[in-house]
Design goal:
NADH Oxidase, binds flavin mononucleotide, 175 residues, alpha+beta
Length: 175
């Protein structure tokens, strides 16, 4: 199996991160890979908000926890120190697909560098809330964006899960 296929098959979601910050060079490489995802008509509808600031990370985590309905004290980002939030421009018809591919690139690029990752949901609700809108405004982002996902990043604290077996009939061949 070549290196790319190995990464695609062996990436797994991490739910137990060390608090250590991701190395700047690795973070930049992961972000760059995200920006090279294919997008409908090449419109590059997504943007990525890269959060490494602990205070803001914790505020987003709290917002996400409340949307998810979990009890206080639960961290839906599993301790990950870096949160990459992918949003995509609402008026582009392919924006959800575009943003999802960016998410895939981010997670696979992370895997290729030995950085653990997981997609965390509820970005849509987060950026429909006053909290999310205020964050966008603070960053000077004025157009209408939809939250697609959070790519939580860090170093795994222990081994990640084995993949679930692939279901039968995943692929239908028409030869
Ligand atoms: C759209 C999407 C949303 C997800 N949201 C969450 C989430 O909010 N919390 C979580 O723990 N995992 C989340 N995951 C991770 C999945 O649970 C995980 O990808 C799945 O169990 C398969 O495991 P693997 O990534 O190790 O292959 C999400 C994955 C996707 C693709």
């Amino acid at each position: 199996m070549n290196e790319t296929l190995n990464v695609l098959e062996n990436r797994r979601s991490c739910r137990n991160f060390k608090p250590d910050m991701v190395k700047e060079e690795e973070l930049q490489e992961i972000l760059r890979a995200g920006t090279y995802a294919a997008t409908g008509m090449g419109k590059q509808s997504p943007i990525i908000i890269a959060v490494t600031d602990k205070k803001l990370r914790d505020e987003i985590m709290e917002e996400n926890r409340k949307i998810g309905g979990w009890n206080e004290g639960f961290d839906p980002f599993y301790g990950a120190p870096v949160i990459l939030i992918v949003l995509a421009k609402k008026d582009v018809v392919t924006h959800v697909y575009d943003g999802s591919l960016v998410m895939g690139n981010l997670m696979n690029a992370a895997e290729s560098l030995g950085v653990a990752s997981i997609w965390i949901h509820r970005a849509k609700e987060e950026f429909e809330s006053e909290f999310g809108k205020a964050l966008l405004k603070k960053l000077g982002i004025e157009e209408e964006y939809e939250g697609i996902g959070h790519c939580a990043l860090g170093y795994a604290d222990g081994p990640v899960n084995e993949p679930a077996p692939r279901k039968e009939n995943y692929v239908y061949f028409c030869k």
